[in-house]
Amino acid sequence: MSISQLNAEALRQSLEQLARRHGIQQWDLGASCSDDTSVQVDRGEAKQMKAAQRSAITVRAWNADGLVGITSTSDLSAEGLERALVGASEASAFGNPDDSPAFSPLATAALQPLEQPLHEPVNILKLLDTLKDAERDLLGRHEAIETVPYNGLAQRRSQRLYLNSDGAARQQAMTTASLYLYARAEQSGRKPRSAGAVRLAYGAGYLDIAGCIDEAAERTISHLDYAPITTGRYTCVFSPEAFLDLIGAFSSLFNARAVLDGVSLSRRESLGQPLASPFLNLHDNGLHPGNIGASSFDGEGTPTQRLTLLEGGVLRQFLHSEATARAFGVAPTGHAGMGAKVSVGPDYFEVEPAGSTTASGGAAGLDHRRHQGPLVLIDSLSALHAGVKASQGSFSLPFDGWLMDGGQRISIEAATVAGDIRSVLNDLIGFEGPAKVTPDGVCPHVWVEGLSITGEA
Amino acid sequence: MTITSTRAGDPAHQAGDALSAGFGSHWSVRLEPLLASGRKAGADLVEVFLERTDHLGVLAEQDRVTSVSPAFGLGAGIRVFLGSRDGFVSTNDLSDQGLQSALEQALGMLGLQIEALGRSGGGVGFDGLPSLRDHASSKISWLAACPDLAEASSKLLEGTARLERHGHHLQVRRGSYSRDWQEVLVAASDGTFARDIRLHQSLGLNVLAADGDHRASLGRRYGTTDSPDDLRRWDADASALEICDSAATMLYADYVEAGQMPAVLANRFGGVIFHEACGHLLETTQVERGTTPFADKVGEAIAHEAVTAIDEGLSSGAFGSLSMDDEGMEPQRTVLIENGILKRFLSDRAGEQRTGHARTGSGRRQSHGFAAASRMRNTYIAAGPHTPDQLIASVDRGLYCKSMGGGSVGPTGQFNFAVDEAFLIENGQLSRPVKGATLIGEAKEVMPRISMCANDLELAAGFCGSVSGSIFVTVGQPHIKVDSITVGGR
């Protein structure tokens, strides 16, 4: 693996010279580069080994009227840089005078330190051996597990920076690694079943490989004994991963850009109003140690921070870029991308019961394993890109899960869960167990009253 | 190695000079030594994919252009095969040094080492590149002939203005335009040496209608390939009228009642059902993984006899059409299913090697950052003998799916897709509109249930994301009837 290097000072000098040459007074730049290696295997053999060296820059230029233009490129040559800057300057003629971004006032504020150890990359042939071993182990867990059709072990060394013509200079380097194992199992006369697991770490040598194999095996085997479910309304228990996926799909509820654009279910005046059950707290915290690969600053250079979105079910704050924050009269929150129209997005959700007493967190003693009467445990949701209508609040999603009844569990053959996100948030019954740290956030199991399940029975 | 220095003599600088002339036949001088040294190192085959791109995105909201996002780029993907294995390296560095480094890395993945680079084209089993097969020579002017930023912005604003004229309760009106120009060169040690220029333009209109608690969001996307004048010919008024009619219908629609029922799926983007439920399972990447139930079914019935399905890259102007695939092969018209019988799989270079299914000109990738894989192009169910009304009249109680959203298929063949606009069918007639439906099922089970095809085949542009990234595709079908399918809803 070669090591990409972004030379911030050389980039700054180049941009300053080019800006002077073209009469551009105000500019900023986001740049990133990465070296990736990854392997895939298929029944003991290498399937594909890949490596990539990537680089990209995005340049913004402001014209004399204060309008901004943007151009992106992967060409970091001198010609590429000049073409990007000139292109951005030309595009600024089409900037939106009603909503023009400016530099973040926090682009030079102190950053929160992140504990992100840098690790040397592992040789790709070593990665291959590791993944072969993992596949072999997983295939040996049950005779029905015939293949692991989706698998991968990858590592990345990356660097990103933000510069602007006012002197802001942000830079971050990190190493990350990921492992995914998605097994397929089939028994005679029965339909194939599949499930998987993912692990992230700051280096390939630090991945929880055994845990990933255990989880993939356990989940896959647990779906072998399946049956169709009767269509109806059920109490549902969302796994931490599933609930975080659902919240993420409706993150426009908390997104100031979406509010200003009129595509969020929330409005300006929703702040301070109840949105969810009073025992729900929701934070966005990109700085959480479980957020492997966290960014210490956003696309505008604003520091990443922990932000309370829901407190006791009441909407407290929105996620902001510089422009949306200015429109709301608040400070940017560190959730911006980089663009002529700057996107806003969440980093890493924390879902927790409100307050410290059991009662304030909803029903006490919830345990889906001991619950009497049928309930549906939703393990993972699919097709969120197609089945979520965020601006309507509705969803209808295929899922993998189990029908639980009196301590018995049976995998559900094929089914969808449908509802309205506002109803879900208000019909929470409570939380079960400790919060689980996942790649997408932190969350306990979440119980929800009466959702519509469509099955094939 | 990514270099940000702008010093004279910088390798990236040299690459920039060479690129100013595009990917012409002069590149053989630089690529032949690479291919030769890869073969000398012991590789069965070495393939180099070079790419230049130029993108323009424009977004108009209400009556303003709110975002303009130009982008351009370049890169190379080098793939080395040894037996059934392959190594793939991509880079943005097109200097000699950058390409050689990428080749060495790809060879190293397979345990091979490069020898000293010679300047001659010959190598073990490699006799140099032939004359360039240039599909791009007639397309050089395309980029310059496309609408510029001002013209594209003006056309989009015309679209959002038409939405305002025709719509009611429209809270959000959006128009988006995307122009993707790509020049590619493929050179391989088997003698492949071909260039192409591709041009894809797409245009979308979206609305959010809101009235009290009632909300409906709807969109339409149009797309063509290889037609610089496409945006100029766009009938903004007709598109706006169609979307506004749909929004007005769906704004007050009830949520669909869930259950098993027959369904009639409209033509054009209704073809996503075949794309998701069956098309992906007929790609050799799925055969390699063991994730298709049809792997050993060639010559057997896998669908109702009413179904004939085709994948091709030839239809004029269609979003999935191409002069050559991303492995330099000219596309074919591939009959996948004929009268219910499975005929062929879609195959790329690796698929042919690993599964034995002959290449079909279906090796496709999003960019140089992905190795090519067997992917769909223009995929559709052929027209049948019936009228759409006959299909609807044959259903006592069911669902008419007028407009589809996206979908996906899982590793066990389970598919799903969302329905954006639907009507109940009662006693053979369309009745009230319903929303919130998701159709799910298994490919093996649903294909035999497509029992009627109408005579109104039409295609629609779309995007497909899979192992080799997001690519331009066409889906299509006539109106079809599915005898029974699971409709998820409330």
Please explain how this structure is put together.
The complex is a heterodimer of chains A (457) and B (490). Chain A folds into two domains: 8-220, 2-Layer Sandwich (PmbA/TldD fold); 225-457, no CATH class. Chain A contains nine helices and 19 strands. Chain A is α+β, with helices and mostly antiparallel strands. The longest helix of chain B has 18 residues, at 149-166. In chain B, strand 21 and strand 22 form a beta hairpin. Chain B is of the alpha+beta class and 490 residues long. Chain B starts with 10 loop residues before the first helix and ends with a strand. Chain B folds into two domains: 11-250, PmbA/TldD superfamily (PmbA/TldD fold, 2-Layer Sandwich), CATH 3.30.2290.10; 254-488, no CATH class. Residues 1-18 of chain B have low confidence and may be disordered. Chain B has twelve helices and 23 strands. In chain B, the strands form four sheets. In chain B, strands 1, 2, 3, 4, 5, 6 and 7 form a seven-stranded mixed β-sheet that branches. A six-stranded mixed β-sheet of chain B has the order 12-11-10-15-22-21. A five-stranded mixed beta barrel of chain B has the order 9-16-17-19-23. Classes of the chains: A alpha+beta (457), B alpha+beta (490). Chains A and B meet through helix 1, strand 1, strand 2, strand 3 and helix 2 of A and helix 1, strand 1, strand 2, strand 3 and helix 3 of B. Strand 2 of chain A pairs parallel with strand 3 (85-91) of chain B, so a sheet runs across the interface.
